[in-house]
Write a structure and sequence with these properties.
38% of the residues lie in helices and 16% in strands. With 290 residues, the chain is α/β, with parallel strands linked by helices. It folds into two domains: 207 residues, Metal-dependent hydrolases (TIM Barrel, Alpha-Beta Barrel), CATH 3.20.20.140; 56 residues, DNA polymerase, domain 1 (Orthogonal Bundle), CATH 1.10.150. Strands 1, 2, 3, 4, 5, 6, 7 and 8 form an eight-stranded mixed beta sheet that branches. β6, α8 and β7 form a beta-alpha-beta unit. The longest helix has 27 residues. It is globular. The model has no long low-confidence stretch (mean pLDDT 96). The structure holds adenosine monophosphate, fe (iii) ion (2 copies) and zinc ion. Adenosine monophosphate (AMP) binds next to α5 and α6.
Length: 290
């Protein structure tokens, strides 16, 4: 049998993807994906709808991408990082509490960004930003970006980020993310496994030093995303060496966001052995499907 096609990082309309959970599963099927993880930002609200339409032969890993903050290892100010949690109990009190807090914070923060832009004459209707958000979904800057495109302010989501929504922009408002160690502890306490998402995505801004990844491995981090669209070839090699040294599982995934980004689903994939190793560390919820 050919090796399975495994994509462990994808977003739906439960956060800032443009495919509904059902459409995400369909897109994965069209791309020949055998194992798909649904990993929306700070929510598990897309899990059920994805599981409901899972076709025979496809497996679904239920996960989420946690918005976190970390020291950099250089003594400068903390940096925003993302943590993928897989197969954790979605009813675990600490996770429910923190995800609920973050989703509320996300809404409040987009209101503030919208107000700042309105004050400078950008015609963004905040109600329009939230009108299409499904119950339990996470609002994000991509929603604002689409509203700016709809209003004709910019030509694309990418242009919205480049000109108005980037993290150093006068319109940017930060949110209070979870300390990454706390998030790792939460995921593990809920029976899940934690993987550091795109740790060296330098085009997004500052990244952590390898020493930080080593320290997180010592407190229960299970893996690092190596093959990711935002990782340069030399950083993938650096991470491969680091993962081997630290005994971390190395994954590869697309970070698919539908039409909010240009990367197709399964553009990057995870090896079967790495996947099995990850799953063997989880005791929360099981992988669904064949
Ligand atoms: P937020 O979670 O609200 O801070 O928004 C961050 C999200 O915006 C990330 O998860 C990405 O999915 C998305 N993003 C960041 N930069 C871009 C970009 N240039 N084009 C499209 N989406 C982006
Ligand atoms: Fe995103
Ligand atoms: Fe991310
Ligand atoms: Zn992501």
């Amino acid at each position: 049998m050919a090796s399975p096609r495994i994509d462990l990082h994808a977003h739906s309309t439960a956060s800032d993807g443009t495919d509904s959970p059902a459409e995400l599963v369909a897109a994965a099927q069209r791309a020949g994906v055998d194992v798909l993880a649904i990993t929306d930002h700070d929510t598990t609200s897309g899990w059920a709808a994805a599981a409901d339409v899972l076709p025979p032969g496809m497996r679904l890993v239920r996960g989420a991408e946690f918005s976190c903050v970390s020291e950099t290892g250089r003594g400068d100010r903390p940096v925003s990082v993302h943590l993928l949690g897989y197969l954790f109990d979605p009813a675990h009190a600490a996770i429910v509490g923190e995800q609920t807090r973050l989703r509320a914070e996300r809404v409040e923060r987009l209101h503030k960004m919208t107000e700042k832009m309105a004050a400078d004459g950008y015609p963004v209707d905040v109600d329009l930003v939230f009108a299409q958000l499904p119950e339990g979904a996470s609002a994000g800057r991509p929603h604002l970006a689409r509203a700016l495109v709809a209003a004709g302010v910019v030509g694309s989501v990418n242009e919205a980020f480049a000109t108005l929504l980037y993290s150093g922009s006068p319109y940017y408002v930060p949110k209070a993310d979870t300390p990454v160690r706390t998030a790792i502890e939460m995921v593990r306490a809920a029976g899940g496994v934690a993987v550091f998402a795109h740790p060296l995505a330098r085009k997004r801004g500052r990244v952590v030093e390898p020493s930080v990844i080593a320290a997180l491995a010592a407190v229960g981090l299970a893996g690092v995303e190596i093959d990711h669209p935002d990782h340069a070839p030399e950083d993938r090699e650096l991470l491969r060496g680091l993962a081997a040294d630290l005994g971390l599982v190395g994954t590869g995934s697309s970070d698919y966001h539908g039409t909010n980004k240009t990367t197709p689903i399964a553009a990057e994939t995870t090896g079967a052995d790495a996947f099995e190793q990850l799953v063997s560390g989880a005791t929360g919820v099981g992988v669904i499907g064949a």
